[in-house]
Amino acid sequence: MWDSDIALIADYHALPSSQRFLASLIRDPEVHRRPLVIGVETIFSRDQHIVDEWWRGEIEEAELRQRIRFDFDWGYDWTPFYELLTAARDHGAGLYGLDCMPREDLRKIGARDRHAADKIAEIRDRHPDALVLVLFGESHLAPRHLPAQVRERLPKARVLTALQNVDALYWRAAGEPSDHVQAVRVAADVVCVFNATPLEKYENYRLYLNRWGRDETGAIDLGPTVYNLIDGLVRFLGINLYSPHNTTQPRQLVDLMPEVYSRNSDALLRRLLSRKGFSASQRRAMFAARPRSRQCLSPPLNAFIFASFT
Predict the structure, then answer these.
(1) What is the fold of 6-211?
(2) Is the pTM here over 0.85, yes or no?
(3) Which of 42, 125, 139, 165 sits at a 20 to 30 Å CA gap from 177?
(4) pLDDT more than 90, % of the chain
């Protein structure tokens, strides 16, 4: 792996050992012969400014978790993922979100692959001497999906795909009753590592199925409604969210989606406004006006702010 330029590492989201495997790689002294950059599917690239604030120590763990909408938009275990993030900050040269909406529409998996490949190419251009470690869902790492897209954009880069705990390979290798096999080479540019059994994988997934759909905080999340409205509007206007060439727009519009704040995140919004240089009088004026307007858009913040949605 250390001889590669880019390592695409498969993530079985419900299995904490998947995320902890990458964290262990980041902490491995062998890897630090070169700068190390990490990219993750879990975080939307539109939220890169939030990741950068956390990386610089401007915000704490709780605010990071809330503002990247981890529990609403991802819904898996925070603890192993945060261990990965802290390992990246302690030992890495950079941390990047790679994904874009919509996650719930499997028909858009190709658009998400292309978007992630574009982001990986940008990271490679920004950090040409670094080893780029990418954690992305295992379904995206089929040969004709993300690996093919990355090679198309970076034909000279040495790209390795690292699968984790593939059932068929487990029973042929790691499941042997004699010596435990930790990894096998599947092809010249593909390996598979073993850090869990199939039973562990599917039991963890079953537990998540039981948890999903329950909002333990009772908070109302208006983000999906806002993003669906924006998506409907740009479709009506014939704008391609995933194109880097929308007239004068140099970036993919899907990366420029605004943050959404509702009444249950007032304290968070006040801290953000303070950090962004809004004076106390400006902050008071914004919150005083909001009940009358119900909703407002703050261009300096690229954020929607709601008193209510009615």
Answers:
(1) Rossmann fold (3.40.50)
(2) no
(3) 139
(4) 50
